[in-house]
Design a protein that fits this description.
Number of domains of chain A: 2
Structural class of chain A: alpha/beta
CATH topology of the largest domain in chain A: Aspartate Aminotransferase, domain 2
CATH architecture of the largest domain in chain A: 3-Layer(aba) Sandwich
Number of helices of chain A: 12
Largest sheet of chain A: 7 strands, mixed
Oligomer: homodimer
CATH superfamily of the largest domain in chain A: Type I PLP-dependent aspartate aminotransferase-like (Major domain)
Order of helices and strands of chain A: HEHHEHEHEEHEEHEEEHHHEEHEEEH
Strand order of the largest sheet of chain A: 2-8-7-6-5-3-4
Strand content of chain A: 15-25%
């Protein structure tokens, strides 16, 4: 029995598992220290009322004969896919069909699983820094990865590749740098993919944080994107579903490679290895798109963005070089005195009781950077800024 | 961009998607026909009160600051893993550690994903007939599959392989044949795996249907199984979670191959490509193990087993040859007049409005057999038997 040795090429721990275990160790040694978590990017606000109403109603149904629901349809309930189709696509002029939407338990799973429908021998490009799921899951599958550097010099937008790349992962608003991309810049990637027969995996998990009308919410706002791109969405950050688990992937039927529609391949994968998101969670997801739900989640997003503005402004006034935090819930800062990100992680944790994420965890180009999230409690976020202000660095 | 061409070796549709689409087409043509579904094996009884109480309480928590929960711990909440450990293992004398239990969104996902930690070049053995997820997911990964015939002659228990097999999938109580295995028979597979350095994937999804004390609920009741076996569990059939989605895998730390613990590999896979079962569903899962929960789900299982007995007895008295349905919720019958399973499927659907599953869908040795499930409504199940009685075959 031979193991999958590609796993041995991974760093030993998944980044956020490593952070969790460092924090746990610190807390065990310092049980009375109050820790503010601006690290993993977990949300802190409870579910809004319209979502709670939908969830409670659906739970009630599960307890009664006649309204009980078992296995969900393969691709998700139509009520949810209809709501997604209308609000996330039709309203933006994107012509996406119901059969192109696959409801899942979250964008992380989809990010990790989507590579299965591709051959092992494709060349994959990811940004550096990168959300580690894109790279780790391709390493696990034994694929060659090309890194596209994102630095202060290129404004954290990767250059269009000058060699042939088969699969390109893009995430905007970006995790971890908080960078956004204009429609014109994104169109260049779509055009590159069309010319090179490449496929773009577009992670739109943070699109709800976009307020500037010039910035696209979906890659399908670009000309020709339905022939080159798969798009992934999450309910985690726009509606607080990190603990409920819901997301969706769009795989257009017209995305055909080697004569096969990727929609068909993903449908087969989805039906064979997955059994649907819980009915009650899909009802909660539907409520995100109701008139009352839209108002409530938009308010929640605005409140998180007040944290982002506070972090950005506070750190700037302290002399830090800060990126992101506008149209995006992540703040990406240069560490002081060219410290390594892990050194700054330890310093912040030990001297200020603040958990962030070291840039190194996202790749080599992340060295000397550090990520803070806007998803904390407002009071905690203010307190964190005060603590950083008094740090002796 | 090259697609994963191993997908092209699959049958075009996942079995149960194919059945769903045939039924949908029939219903569209016959909108007034009343259809009884004894096919896909979905449960029909609503969640029991103790589970509903836990679910409602957890949903309430999600709506309030202070009790809201975001991302779950990688392997699942300890409250659930503790309950699993106590009730499913310690109480049966199996020494399973908390860190060996991985909570997931269901046994189907785990069945499908577990093969990722193995090299492509392993030889995989599955029974024939087989739950298609085991074989399909290995075909998708390009592995060679050896089929172990299960027929009336060997009582649907496969022979111990006489060649070297690396990975063996076993499922008892069996889906689709409803066969059970004694501890002595199972021990032979464990011994084979120990001698050949093989790994057994043991799917125990239906263990709650075992009432005979001589039949093991877990493979870890066998000597040495912790060095050779991974076990998969579901909450779908014992507690009606088909629409809630919850399961778990046990990957013992002592299961080491090529110097690497499979526990470490699976932990890395789980943390990288999955983000945990919903908190509210894990609380519902915990309630399955509460004293009141145990009583209520046992009652539900007994009621389903009354359906099994009814189907078994009715078909036997009509002259059918029937297997399973004792210690297992599936009834496996020989089709009349040596019809093919798909012909019998069409006949039952068109002339009796009953949906079952043709044996061919589970493999070549399933030809001429047919699966019915005990998960229907009691009244519907009785009605189905009456309709079959009046069939002109």
């Amino acid at each position: 029995m031979k193991i999958n040795k590609d796993y041995l090429n991974l760093s030993q721990n998944y980044l956020f598992s490593e952070i969790a275990s460092r924090v746990k160790a610190f807390q065990a040694e310092n049980p009375d220290k109050d820790i503010i978590r601006l690290g993993i990017g977990d949300v802190t606000k409870p579910l809004v009322r319209p979502i709670m109403d939908a969830l409670e109603k659906a739970v009630f149904e599960m307890g009664h004969k006649g309204t009980f629901r078992g296995y969900a349809p393969d691709k998700g309930y139509e009520f949810l896919r209809n709501a997604i189709c209308e609000s996330d696509y039709k309203s933006r002029g994107c012509d996406i069909d119901l059969d192109e939407i696959f409801v899942s338990d979250g964008a992380k799973s989809d990010c990790g699983n989507i590579q299965e429908i591709f051959d092992k021998d494709n060349i994959v490009a990811v940004t550096d820094p990168v959300y580690p799921v894109y790279s780790d899951t391709n390493i696990m599958a034994g694929r060659k990865i090309v890194y596209m550097p994102c630095t202060g010099e290129n404004g954290f937008i990767p250059e269009i590749p000058d060699t042939k790349i088969d699969i390109i992962y893009l995430c905007f608003p970006n995790n971890p740098t908080g960078t956004v991309i204009t429609k014109d810049e994104l169109q260049k990637f779509v055009d590159y993919a069309a010319e090179n027969d490449s496929v773009i995996i577009y992670d739109a998990a943070y699109e709800a944080y976009i307020s500037d009308p010039a910035i696209p919410h979906s890659i399908y706002e670009c000309e020709g994107a339905k022939d080159v791109a798969i798009e992934l969405h999450s309910f985690s950050k726009n509606a607080g579903f990190t603990g409920l688990r819901l997301g969706y992937a769009v795989v257009p039927k017209s995305l055909v490679r080697e004569g096969v529609s990727l929609n068909t391949l993903w449908a087969r994968r989805h039906a064979t290895k997955y059994n649907g998101a819980p009915y009650i969670v899909q009802r909660a997801g539907e409520a995100v798109y109701s008139p009352a739900g839209k108002v409530a989640v938009a308010q929640q997003v605005r409140e998180y963005m007040e944290n982002a503005a506070l972090i950005r402004d506070s750190l700037t006034s302290m002399g830090y070089t800060v990126y992101g935090g506008v149209n995006a819930p992540y703040i990406w800062l240069k560490t002081p005195n060219d410290m390594s990100g892990w050194d700054f992680f330890d310093l912040l944790l030990k001297n200020a009781g603040i958990v962030g994420t070291p840039g190194e965890g996202f790749g080599n180009c992340g060295a000397g950077y550090f990520r803070l999230t806007a998803f904390g409690d407002a009071r905690d976020t203010r307190l964190a800024m005060e603590r950083i202000k008094t740090l002796q660095i």
